Amino acid sequence: MTKPASPQSPDSAAALPRLAVSGVSKSFGSNLVLRDVSFSVRAGEVVSLVGENGAGKSTLMHICAGTFPPDGGTLMLDGAAYRPASPRAASKAGVALALQETAILPDLTVAENLFFGDEPRGLLGLMSQKRLHWDAEALLADLGFALKADRLGAELSAAERQMLEIARAVRQKPRLLILDEPTASLSSHETDLVLKAMDRIKQGGGSVIFISHRLDEVMQAADHAVVLKDGMLTLDAVRGGFTRDDLIRAMVGRTLTDIFPPRPASFTDKPVRLALEGAVAPGLKPLTLAVRAGEIIGFAGLEGQGQRPLARALSGIAPFTGGTIAIDDKATPISSVSRGIAAGIASIPDDRKHEGLALDLPVRMNVSLFALSRKSRWGWLRQQLEQTFAEEARRRFAIRTTGIEQPVRQLSGGNQQKVVFARWLAETPKVLVLYEPTKGVDVGAKTEIYRLVGELSAQGVAVILISADMLELIGLSDRIHVLFEGAVTGTLERSDFSEEAIMRLAAGPEGVLGHAA
Amino acid sequence: MSANAYLVRMKPAPASLRAVVLLVLLLAAFFVSARVFSPLLLLDNIRQAAPLGVVVLGQALVLMMGRLDLSVGATASMANIVLCATFNGDMANLVPALALTLGAGALVGLANGIMATKLKIPAFLATLATSMIVAGLVVFFTGGSPRGAVPAQFRAVTEAWLFGIVPWSALIWLVLLIGLMLLVHYTMLGRKMILSGANLVAARHSGIPSDGLIVLSFVLCSLLAATGGILLSAITGMASIGVGNGFTLDSIAAAVIGGALFSGGVFLPLGAMAGALILFVVQSLLYLLALPPAAKFIVQGGIIVLALALASFRKGRSS
């Protein structure tokens, strides 16, 4: 555990911290989410809170914003005890939270959403539409956000909804503004605007806590970084006292080389497994691609740039409508899921609960489908074989369960994902399509999944990795294609991998400046 | 080890056992009230419950697919009319009578299945519509006064006892039950049906032809409903309009008492059988106690509440 270098600068030694969190713990049921977390935020400081999914960041933020109380520990706001009973109480005390999943009312305009519940009053205390509109325009212009005040909530894109949510929080002129992954759906230009808005709050003496997965952003904007891992504080350092690598190590508990499998230097001697030639699908512009045996090809991009159509076309759910597809030099149109399976494609869906698993059925029935259908004779289900296969899958994929008869619903996210893998990998496929393979999965299971992918690639499986997780893309891929509006706008080789490079390409060919205007 | 695996698999689900326990309690009440314990009385109950029991099997299958069939009553009633009209009291017409009746039933199921999949009409609305159409067609073709009758020899199906011990209708019920159990729990087809019923999208994305399986379940359900109608006709011996209409709600009630879930993915043949018997024994018990017919509905409603409350109570404790 790294101790803070010295958060109190000498000249403000007397000044109390804006927020002091000490010894905070929280558990949900038997699940301990936060364990004795202490840190402080000074006035006029931007604190970046970093950690893997499930590390406890959001829980900590919700405690600060009054959504629920901590089980133990105390909070102090500007030296006074701070125990908000509700988000409303927190907001009265000057703490505003802008959520990642925004609550924008679809039938109200941007201006109405912005001032919801606190509308400017005109004559006779009635709501004044004109003032509402003016004030909203002024605030948005001030922030530099390209949002029209009269647009309806329903018309906004994910990025625009996020900007609105941030503007709404900024409007309250909070003493402490908490932003939960504000930039996850934003382009680099929009991200700059958000970082500028944070800067402005800082100049005005306010404090900001922002959660982000993008380490470049953290390095750029944070005056002070706090890292959580498995509910515990693993790093607390001010600017200059930490590097990117420090952050990563504190987040995952080990260095990247340990969690990602080693990659061979070159694949040029390997045969081409999967070849696409001008393949088109709804939402996907013509794509030409060659994946050699054992290669892991990453697809990056902002949300909704063609990742889903690509995954669905490759798995045969929404097949390619044109172009040629060849597997091992043989033309193989993937016209349906079962054709895809027959051709040796295994496809891990991004939404395991809806698209991958029968949650109320036991592990046994969820893992055994492909193993059984291949080996069944005369259509009879071979019970003994199923039993053995399920037990073996449980061992091979290290699925933590009370037994193969336990319903999948009762397993953790990581173990559910391993069940999906176990079903699809009953036999080694030729092509493995991974769509957000570690979404909502804990670090331990993530590491196991990465190791598994590494093993498969060593066996000559061609892997397509479609992911929004930068660390995963950079750590696992041999080459990364960046998608923008359904087309590949750039390709990075392993030596050129960086989050900045990916983000630059993800923003689109002309940059986003023209876009925002 | 291997025998053990089979034993574990053969162990009835808790929901089935709950229904069986409920059934045993009701039977005890029945025999106490009758002041006589006679296995023959029990077997006679089974004999008379067989038509409903067969229909419940079909309903349970459709429920397993996460759907609902509101047309089983109309289909059974139609089967009665078609069977009597084709038989016309002559055993020589056995083959055409059975073929036509089951064929008509299969058509209803096909229509249900196609509406529920290709036309994407919610199953309970689609089957409600077919139920109305079928009932209307029956009245249209018979002019309201159905003709024909089941020949006396055919009535042996429900009225005669094998070796004087086992009613034939009970045997038919048992054979169909075992057949469906084998289909669902011991074949790949059945496994794919369960997976489709438990999560349709996940099944499709695993290459399972779910739409076809849903159509199959509706066809089987309507065939079983028509079979229930045939057994009922053997009991009554004559054609009368709407004779099987009560099967629609009774079959849903029995399946649910037997542990079926509206969310799909569950098929409990033992539970389905116990559910049908429970409804029937309740009826006999109330008759024995000389309670008014209205009491039947109140008690049936109460039993559904009791069965489901027990189920959610158990679930609450285990999680």
UniProtKB/TrEMBL annotation, chain A:
<keyword id="KW-0547">Nucleotide-binding</keyword>
<dbReference type="InterPro" id="IPR003439">
    <property type="entry name" value="ABC_transporter-like_ATP-bd"/>
</dbReference>
<dbReference type="GO" id="GO:0016887">
    <property type="term" value="F:ATP hydrolysis activity"/>
</dbReference>
<feature type="domain" description="ABC transporter">
    <location>
        <begin position="19"/>
        <end position="255"/>
    </location>
</feature>
<keyword id="KW-0472">Membrane</keyword>
<dbReference type="InterPro" id="IPR003593">
    <property type="entry name" value="AAA+_ATPase"/>
</dbReference>
<keyword id="KW-0762">Sugar transport</keyword>
<keyword id="KW-0067">ATP-binding</keyword>
<protein>
    <submittedName>
        <fullName>ABC-type sugar transport system ATPase subunit</fullName>
    </submittedName>
</protein>
<keyword id="KW-0813">Transport</keyword>
<feature type="domain" description="ABC transporter">
    <location>
        <begin position="267"/>
        <end position="510"/>
    </location>
</feature>
<dbReference type="InterPro" id="IPR027417">
    <property type="entry name" value="P-loop_NTPase"/>
</dbReference>
<dbReference type="GO" id="GO:0005524">
    <property type="term" value="F:ATP binding"/>
</dbReference>
<keyword id="KW-1278">Translocase</keyword>
<keyword id="KW-1003">Cell membrane</keyword>
<dbReference type="InterPro" id="IPR017871">
    <property type="entry name" value="ABC_transporter-like_CS"/>
</dbReference>
<dbReference type="InterPro" id="IPR050107">
    <property type="entry name" value="ABC_carbohydrate_import_ATPase"/>
</dbReference>
<comment type="similarity">
    <text>Belongs to the ABC transporter superfamily.</text>
</comment>
<dbReference type="Pfam" id="PF00005">
    <property type="entry name" value="ABC_tran"/>
</dbReference>
<keyword id="KW-0677">Repeat</keyword>
UniProtKB/TrEMBL annotation, chain B:
<comment type="function">
    <text>Part of the ABC transporter complex LsrABCD involved in autoinducer 2 (AI-2) import. Probably responsible for the translocation of the substrate across the membrane.</text>
</comment>
<dbReference type="Pfam" id="PF02653">
    <property type="entry name" value="BPD_transp_2"/>
</dbReference>
<dbReference type="GO" id="GO:0022857">
    <property type="term" value="F:transmembrane transporter activity"/>
</dbReference>
<protein>
    <recommendedName>
        <fullName>Autoinducer 2 import system permease protein LsrD</fullName>
    </recommendedName>
</protein>
<keyword id="KW-0812">Transmembrane</keyword>
<feature type="transmembrane region" description="Helical">
    <location>
        <begin position="45"/>
        <end position="63"/>
    </location>
</feature>
<dbReference type="InterPro" id="IPR001851">
    <property type="entry name" value="ABC_transp_permease"/>
</dbReference>
<comment type="subunit">
    <text>The complex is composed of two ATP-binding proteins (LsrA), two transmembrane proteins (LsrC and LsrD) and a solute-binding protein (LsrB).</text>
</comment>
<keyword id="KW-0472">Membrane</keyword>
<dbReference type="GO" id="GO:0005886">
    <property type="term" value="C:plasma membrane"/>
</dbReference>
<keyword id="KW-1133">Transmembrane helix</keyword>
<keyword id="KW-1003">Cell membrane</keyword>
<feature type="transmembrane region" description="Helical">
    <location>
        <begin position="297"/>
        <end position="313"/>
    </location>
</feature>
<keyword id="KW-0813">Transport</keyword>
<feature type="transmembrane region" description="Helical">
    <location>
        <begin position="94"/>
        <end position="114"/>
    </location>
</feature>
<feature type="transmembrane region" description="Helical">
    <location>
        <begin position="161"/>
        <end position="184"/>
    </location>
</feature>
<keyword id="KW-0997">Cell inner membrane</keyword>
<feature type="transmembrane region" description="Helical">
    <location>
        <begin position="213"/>
        <end position="235"/>
    </location>
</feature>
<feature type="transmembrane region" description="Helical">
    <location>
        <begin position="241"/>
        <end position="263"/>
    </location>
</feature>
<feature type="transmembrane region" description="Helical">
    <location>
        <begin position="121"/>
        <end position="141"/>
    </location>
</feature>
